[in-house]
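Action item from last week, closing it out:
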Amino acid sequence: MDTSMRSCLEQTISAISNIGHSDPITECPASVLALIPFAPEPLIALAHSKLHTFPYDSVPVCWRRLYTDASIAKAVNLIKKSLEYSEGHASTHGKKRLGGAYATPMPTNDWVDEVVKVLDMAAVMAGAAGRAEIIERLLSTLQDHLGEDGPSQRKRRKLEKEQGSFPIAENMQSSKVPSISYPVPSSIAPSMQAFEIHMKTEQPLRIKEALTHWPAMHERPWSSPDYLLEKTFGGRRLIPVEIGRSYTDAEWGQSIITFKEFMEKYMMSEAPDPSRLGYLAQHDLFSQIPSLRNDIAIPDYCYTIPLGSAGTGKSPPPQLEEPLLNAWFGPARTVSPLHTDPYHNILCQVVGKKYVRLYSPEQTTKLYPKGIEEGGVDMSNTSEVDVEATAEVLNADFPLFRQAKYLETILNESECLYIPVGWWHYVRSLSVSFSVSFWWN
C-alpha cells in the first residue's frame, strides 16, 4: 500500500473517530458510537431503519451521520483488508494468511465495486451528512492508487483521443424536431447590464454562445462516454435514475444503479425502448462527484438580483447563499412535464438538444395545476396536461389549455435559457442530452 493511500485511510479513521461535543452524531447512544470503527455493518442497518422511519426532511441528523460514518468505516476496513491481501502478506499458493487462517481475496473489481457502492449509498441515502469531502478524497485516492485515473492514463487517453460518442437518436431527424411558431427572445452572450435590463421584462431569454469557455464543451468533453465513465470511477459510481418517460406517468419509478449500467442500458442504444427510458434528473451530481463540477462554471447571470416571486401566488423560498446546481442527463424522449420552479433558473445545455415550451404565470388558470395528492404531497407546481398529447385528448379533457399563450425554443449545445420564477415550462430531449440547471434568488 503506497504512502498516499495509507495516509488517506489513517486520516479518514481519525476524522470519524474524533467526535466533538457539538457534533450531531453525539445524539446517538455512546455505546453505538464506540462500535463504528469495529462493527460498522450492523450500525448501517440500524441507521437505515431510522432513515425509513421518518420523512427524509425530518430524519434526525444523528442517524444520517451514523449511516455515513459507519459506511466510511466499512469502506476503510474493506480497502485495508483487500490491499493487504493483494500485497501478498503471508501468502501460500496464491492465498493470503489472516489471523492464522487462509482466505482467498475478493477479486479486485468485486471489492472495489463494493467500496464505491457503500460510499455512494451514504451520499445518495444520507446526503453524506457533512462527510462529502472525506468520501470524495477516499474515492479519488483509491482510484489513483489502482491506476485507473493516474497521470499516465490521462496522458495516454489525451494522446489517443479515443473519446467515443453517443448514438444519434432517430428523433433528431429534421422531421421529428418541432417547428417553432412562437420563439423565445434570444441574445448572444449579453452583458450583465443588458441581462439585468431584460430581467425587468419578466420574460424568458435564450442566451447563445454562453458556454464556449466551459471545459465540459472542449478539453473535458461531456459528449464523450469514455470521459464520463472515467470520471465516475470506471462507471462504478451510483446514481438515482428515474425510470419512465415522465414523473407524471403511472408506470414511472426510481432506481439506484451504477453509472455504467445507466450508460449501457439507457444511453448507448441507438433505438431505446421508449416505454423504459432512464433519466438522471434533478440530481446534485456535482456534490457527489466534485471533479465534474470543475468542468463547468456558474453563469455570471446568477449573481444578478432578480425581481422576486411576483405572479407565483406563493411565499418566496428561503434565500440562497449560492445557486443550486442540478444535473439532467438522459436519452432522447425524456420529458420534464409542465411545471414551475421556486427559483429563477438558468438552464445550460452541454450535450444535445432540448425542446422547451414556456407559459407565463398569467396563463396558470388554463394550465390545470394539480393539487394535494395522496400522502399530502403538494403537486400544485405541476400541470395535469401532457403538452404534446393529441388535439382530441386536449380538446376533450383540457379545453382551456388550447387557448393558453406560450413561447418555445430549441435549446442547442452551448446555449442557456433564462426561465423567470413562476413561469411554467415543459422540456423534452430531442437527443442524448446533458443539461445543468442553476437555481438562484
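Closing note: The two ends are 48 Å apart (CA to CA).
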